[in-house]
Amino acid sequence: MRILGIGDYNELGSIYLRLQDEGHEVRVHIAEEGSHDVLGGLIAITPAWERELDWVRDDGLVLFEEVGRGALQDELRESGLRVLGGSALGDRLEQDRGFAQRVLMDMGLRTLGTNQFTSFADAIAFLEANPRRCVLKFNGSTMSSDMNYVGARPDAIDVLAVLRRHQMTWEENWDEAPSFILMDHVSGVEVGLGSFFNGEQFVGPINLDWEHKRFFPGDVGELTGEMGTVVTYRGGERLFAATLAKIEPLLREGKHVGYVNLNTIVNADGIWPLEFTCRFGYPGFAILSALFAEPAGQILQRIANGETASFATHEGFAVGVVLTVPPFPYHLGYEELSKGMPIHLPELSTEARVHLHFGEVALVDGTLVTAGQVGYVMVVTGRGPTLETAQRAVYDLVARIGIPNVRYRNDIGDALRTRGLAEMARLGWL
User: Fold this and answer.
1) Fewest Cβ atoms nearer than 10 Å: which of 118, 153, 173, 316?
2) Measuring CA to CA, how many Å separate 167 from each of 121, 133, 143, 171, 266?
3) Is the pTM of this model over 0.90?
């Protein structure tokens, strides 16, 4: 099969390599100039994806990585191409948080108090008059995760400080007006659930995921995209029926073809939906692929074809750990600090090598080195029948990889193993 990947940063690079190893022809378009070297020497890069459409049309599949190109995907599907990734509807569900909350209410789900703003002054005045613990989340695909902020104080002093900082610096950094929400905070177990949608219905097993978004162990530090995640394809059916299954008619109307995830908080009061992801997630999809029990190309092809057959997955859990180098999660100084750093990989069997999911790396003169823009080197996964065995497998493999000044969290899955799974079981969701 011919596969054309389209994205900004080559974030599905590890999947492209897996598809290539399965015997498929892969070409990738990387829109961001600073990421043109990602997977250099490892995969074929094309400067203009439009030129590849005839190549991929008859026996091919187009994969879109990020949110923001949903309308284009809809157009390409209408032209007869098989496209997997998202849709215009998916873009809106993910990027327009106020719209997503209205959809969740229409689905019959209880939602948290949410107020939408396009002015920092208005948001500050609102919080001063209505102090509360809340979460600041920006709309749109151009805002990085570290711009969001989870408040810790009931008087909102910390969120107000963040808003005032944005108010002072916004015009220097952005040409567009701000657009964001303040969502009431709720405590509980944070759990995501997801499945693929084939344009008509959800297909395949339901996965559950538990993300670790903060930079440092113990959930300390700034928010990143993700520093590690625990996933399983077992036990999610009840939570799915109570939540994500209810959006199937809207996704069918929008002709969405791709992955859909709903992040939630569960506690004694019920389920509190937070936000949608309507695209391949990274590192989430790489970690999920560690549980695939059949070739990834077959799975993706069937979904894009609109087939209803499920796919085989391994029992138990997979744990993924993100390996980074300075200055991640920031860009400034990467060229001087870490770019071009050699990476030493141990001798691994073919089966073990699928647990290395390359990120910003390249092959230069036969040596694997760091590449890209920020120092997001790779994701390492471990699989096991229990969460504890999966944790042991991933950290044993991480210890064998040599990257100078590598940084990663050493507690991925600990809180879930000691408290979270038991609490979800007590509440009746596992």
Assistant:
1) 173
2) 8, 20, 15, 8, 33
3) yes
